[in-house]
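Entry:
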Amino acid sequence: MSTIVDDATIRARLTEPKPAVDPGELTPHKPKRGHLEAQKQVEGAGGSKFRLILRQNRIDVHDFSVILGWEMPSVMRLFKLCRCNGRSHEHRNPLEQGEVFFDFHVHTATERYQEHGYSEEHYARPTIAYTDFHGAIRHLLEIGSFAPPAQGTLL
């Protein structure tokens, strides 16, 4: 059985300050099962280790995922704190009376979904914060408490 991470710890990891990242390192280029992928590891100000995982479908521009994971100490597991997805599929929140939507959406880890046997980041909400892959990257960096990129660099 996996360890359940409480909401306070999730919030602490999301808000732990993280360094700016070079936008060039966030361009998916490695082929992997129908999409391109990039990964970047960073260390937060409190010493926590994090991993950014970016996936973009080779054909469908709305099929993407931008993930912030926390490398949980001592359990050798990547805990997905949040994930910004494209609008390439329908999403269902089963604990919210089967709430369903088809839109850009942000997944957030919750203690509640873990307790009910779902993946930590199963819960999601539709968003208008972004409408494309690069917008999703900017949004994830913002909600994940990353320092802003150097002036003049664009995502």
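Residues 133-143 form the longest helix (11 residues).
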